[in-house]
Amino acid sequence: MLAAVPAVASSAPSSHALSEVRGTAALSWVDQQNQRTFAALEADPRYRGFHDSVLRIRQDAHRIPVPAFLDGAIFNLWQDAAHPRGIWRDATPGSFLAGQPAWTTRLDVDDLARREHRDWVFQGADCLAPDDSPCLIQLSEGGEDATTLREFAPLSGGGMSGGFVPGGFLLPRSKQDVAWQDRDTLLVARDWGEGATGVAGGAMTRSGYPFVVRRLHRGQALDQAVEVMRGQRDDVAVSPVALSDGEGHRLVLIRRSVTFFEDRYSLVTGQGVRALDLPARMDLHGLLAGRLILSANQDWVSGGVAVAAGSVIAVDPDGRKPVQVLFAPGARQAVDEVAVTGTGVVMTVLDSVRGQGWVYRPDAAGGWHGVRLALPDMMSVHVMDADRRSGRVFLSVSGFLTPQQLWLADSTDGSARKIMELPPQFDTAGLVVGQEWAISTDGTRIPYFIVHRADMRRDGRNPTLLTAYGGFQVSSLPDYDPVVGRLWLDRGGVYVVANIRGGGEFGPAWHEAGRTTGRQHVFDDFAAVARDLIARKVTVPAHLGIRGRSNGGLLMGVELTQHPDLWGAVIVGVPLLDMEHFETMAAGASWVGEYGSMSVPAQRAFLERISPLRALRPGVRYPEPFIFTSTLDDRVGPVHARLFAARLQALGVPYLYYEDTEGGHSGTVNAEEVARERALEAVYLSRLMNPGR
After folding, report:
1. What are phi and psi of 238, to 5 degrees?
2. Which CATH superfamily is domain 303-423 in?
3. 665 an active-site residue?
4. Catalytic site includes residue 396
5. pLDDT, tens digit, for every residue of 389-422?
6. One of 53, 440, 550, 611 is an active-site residue; which one?
7. Angle at the Cα of 460 (from 455 to 463), degrees rounded to 5?
8. Distance CA 478, CA 474 (A)
């Protein structure tokens, strides 16, 4: 039997107190909420089994190491029971491709954290091309977005053991971006301190990111760095970018993000900076044969060449050569990911939300030649890393029922071969995958994937978990998730992934339809999929649970308040929920391009109407939600979730709340914490929806 849930305290601290992320009153309330949730869910006899199952998945040695091409070797950050923070290591390409990598540890993050008494989380390395040495190691406290940067060299070569460079570059904690200009010079965007920029309000944008780029020479103190370029406080961010290709071309750029989706790029030259003529809405992927490779997210005309939104193009940064279109998607296609190797361009393309891999390379006639890679169908295809020294690229291929496979493709000849694959991590016998289409409120057809037992009875009693994202042009794809497999599918549950508007499944137009005041389309699409599942007698509201994180957490909050009668369970993860004040919370100002602004009357009216915190009403029977967030999330922040839970508390509505005191916005930072959070979710879903009947 489930242990009795302790009573909720009669009142929460004030909104002001809860908004103080590390305030004493707020953390005391958080601890009370956590203990209440632990008592309710960890006491369940199923909890330990769920927890241990997730922990085994996260610590399973039979995982494909995420590979990165660096310094002529294959690098990887590996986490396991002995190294929960991870070891950064390398192996020779030959041993890795043979499936028997002989790893050499370059940095033991656990050991570093112990020695320095810091909660270090490895966030990557930025290395100087073309030799990939030295590097700047990015370390964060507990997984937050702010990092400390420390010079590290050499890597796998040079006949030395490697390590942090004594007296090398050291940039203390800040939200910051850097680019190597040369071995002894960095371009740095960071918080330069109050009064350092001469701009009222400080050295960071209203979104909480840098807007001033300075040049820092080796041996200089930060206050000696000389300004190269600045943006404005109303920008999202300004950051330096260094690009190089296999032919030795090298460009140093400065990216000014005017909004979340609009960028202005300038080229750093010996005479200063020069603005580049590029589409405002675009994604820059790399440099090939001296040309910039980018995706245009808007229709654009340059030099008489018409570029359709969603196309991948090559642009001469000097403007002397005409723009070239590598790939223009069809009506049901969208470019998902793009990587640049030393010889070509590799892209993953969605065709009716089914993944494909393509390579394009320059041909003798001055155009581009494309070849589709021979990869399995009905899968997700993701770029893991590309080698700018050769044509090689690592791809991850998986499906809902197909464990992850690592493929090596080559843009030089269009070849692709499977290098390794994981053994199954849950029982897929008797399971099938289908793709269905729902009709949204305005008549738009919305696809969704459904995973279920082949002998599923259409009696409306099947426990069903529905998820989606619906924002920022991010696509929801058929990836292999062993946690969902073991904790849900293995126990008879149905799993559904909806490809609603706001995402990138059908290109920029699909995203555009769900931006700002068009966002109700996103919410309507999700509800339409739910109603379609009910109409097909897959499930009924009492057995229908929904889950989403971040922007998906906002989606869950809206669905809870707009359609409380449609759901039996609602999991709201690291969410935005106070849409009337999101612009002033954490990095919220950076998302005005996605959600709109309270300063625009029409957008203000929409945000007030859909804001989940405002929409909660007394006397409404809501399903009991499970809300989780992180204290160290410096992107969305925990305040949204706290205020929402406190409002439920004030209304006397049952809810469960969990705030992880480690990990940033992307999630918990070690296997034990991941296991705890996912096990809490699994008990919550089982308690309300009874999978495994």
Report:
1. -130, 130
2. Prolyl oligopeptidase, N-terminal domain (2.130.10.120)
3. yes
4. no
5. 999 999 999 999 999 999 999 999 999 999 999 9
6. 550
7. 75
8. 13
